[in-house]
Amino acid sequence: MRMDFMGKDSAWIITNSISSFLDSMDTSVIPYMEGALGIKSYYSNSSSSFLEFSTQFQKNFKSENPEEDNAHPGIHALRAYDSIAVITRALERLGSDDTNSPKMLLKNILSSSFSGLSGKIKFEGGNLPNSNSLPFRIVNMVGEVYTELDFWTQDLENPFTREADGKNNGRNTTRTLNGTVIWPGYLKRVRKGWEMPTDAKPLKIGIPANTSFDQFVKVDEAQIDHDKKYTGFCIDIFQKVLEILEQNYSVPYEFHPVVGTYDELVDCVYNKTYDVVVGDVTILASRSKKVEFTMPYAESGLVIVQETPEEPHKAWMFLKPFTTKMWVVTGALLVYTMFIVWVVEYRSNNPAFRGPWKSQLGTALWFTFSFLFFAHRETIRSNITRVVIVVWLFVVFVLTSSYTASLSSMLTVRRLEPNVTDVAWLKATKSVVGCDGDSFVKKYLENVSKFNRADIRNVSSEYLFPGEFQSGNISAAFLELPYSKVFINQFCKNYTATQPLNRYGGLGFAFQKGSPLAADVSEAILTISVTPPFPIQPQWRIRTESGCETIYWDSLTCSFSELNLYLWLYKQFL
Question: 261: number of CA atoms within 13 Å, CB side?
Answer without folding.
Answer: 13
